[in-house]
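ok so for the tutorial part 2 we go from a plain amino acid sequence to predicted C-alpha cells. step 1 is just haveing the sequence, like this:
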Amino acid sequence: MTLLLIGLGMPEIILIVLVVLLLFGAKKIPELMKGFGKGVKSFKDGMKEGEKEERRENT
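step 2 — the prediction. this is what the C-alpha cells look like for a chain of 59 residues:
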C-alpha cells in the first residue's frame, strides 16, 4: 500500500514508526494516539457544526 498523495511507501512508514518508538517509548504511544484521536474527533465535530451554521444562514 502506497500513499501516493504524500509520497510515503511502506519503507518510509516503517522508518517513521521506528523513530517514534525510539523517541517516545512503547508505553507512551497509546497515550499519544488517544490524544491525537480526540483532536481529530474535535476537529470533525467543529467542521460539522460549521456546516450546520452555514446551512442555517443560507436558508
